[in-house]
Amino acid sequence: MIHFENVGLRYGMGPEILRDLTFDVPDRSFQFLTGASGAGKTTLLKLLFMSLRPTRGLITMFDRDIAMVPSGDLPMLRRRIGIVFQDFRLLDHLTTFENVALPLRVRGRPESSYRRDVVELLEWVGLGDRVNALPPVLSGGEKQRAAIARALIDRPELLLADEPTGNVDPPMAKRLLSLFLELNRLGTAVVIATHDLSLMDQLEARRMILTHGRLEIHG
Ligand SMILES: Nc1ncnc2c1ncn2[C@@H]1O[C@H](COP(=O)(O)OP(=O)(O)OP(=O)(O)O)[C@@H](O)[C@H]1O
Questions:
Q1: A biological process (GO) annotation for this entry (predicted)?
Q2: Which pTM value belongs to this model?
Q3: Whose CA is closest to atom 7 on ligand 1?
Q4: What is the complex's ipTM, to 2 decimals?
């Protein structure tokens, strides 16, 4: 599904943040992406979301060499990806329900066809009573769960999540992890960036470890 070959990334004239990254993210796989703060996890997720271009190397996403993809085609490819940003990126003028339903609305689906699914997912992530709230009145943990629900609702082929349990307590983190696993069981490849060891210790999954810009893979 995804292939990186000798990929390097630097911001402007700065040092190379990621170096010689060669790896695959297979279809339907589940992996954690970890490494110290500043190691480059978010940067790697941005490469995977095609919001950054590598400074060298080859990236293939969904069988397309992304260097050859015109920028006008990127939104269409990105629709195959669900992403949870570290800063959530909810739209403040839309309710929690409307934020989560957005990927479905963009596809032109009528609300009657997804209303129940959205409400059920919101209930599952503990936001059953926040359906009509606007993001500015949500807590950090509530925003995070809304962002997760939005990333999952359309059952993407690939899910990218940046510290998705950073703002919730351990029981909720466990619940969210089980949600990611369920999505994976249904066929989504999942990449979770985290430095939460207790989260990673909850299951035997592939670990992609970034150290000084280089990647090591275990499992
Ligand atoms: N837009 C940018 N311009 C210049 N340097 C950047 C930019 N974004 C990130 N960096 C630098 O790239 C390095 C990797 O940052 P990145 O955010 O990818 O790390 P991270 O592993 O996600 O960190 P954290 O766990 O703290 O979120 C850091 O040294 C950071 O300062």
A1: cell division
A2: 0.95
A3: 11
A4: 0.97
